[in-house]
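input
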Amino acid sequence: MISVKLNKRQSQETTEWSGGQTTQLYIYPNSASYSERNFDFRISSAVVSQEQSEFTSLPGYRRHIMLLDGSMNLVHENHHSRTLERYEQDFFDGAWHTSSQGKCTDFNLMLGSGFEGSLRCLYRPEAIVCKMQFCGLYALAEGLRVYVVEGSEVIFTEILNLNDFLMICGANTHPDCYVVLEPQLGSATTEALAVCASISAQHS
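output
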């Protein structure tokens, strides 16, 4: 069964961390707690306001990070280093000792054991076929019309504004489920419109 959950910008939970602020967009299961480390996956956005910062240790989780603004040099001790510019990504084990240099805004996907996922930017109006169990959209622009379609029926529609987050759950249970993203008339398409996060249990 397909369900849709909308987390508007004004309802999102923002907390402090050593390098700045982090905003939780979605956590699964809903009863899970980030502080207790009992979640299967978590999606968030962070503002890194310190020039140098240390990443929180997350043993048992794999991390995907995408830069939304600014520049960041990531250093994974005894592993690799990478400088990220806007919309570029890095992937790493949450147990690694990771530090960063540079002020920026980023988008994070944390995956527990048994889950897989990916991130990509959407630059133009398109229909997104939902092949994984969870499909999340994070708006990077104002006035994005979203339609969730099951077969020939529109089961949900909403306008997303900057930093709104929409999660479609159970989309892979219907072979003809897809999401249509349309910017409002006159919106530029040279910048990314949204980030799409796709997540599924590995046995699905």
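quick obs: DSSP finds no helices and 19 strands in the chain.
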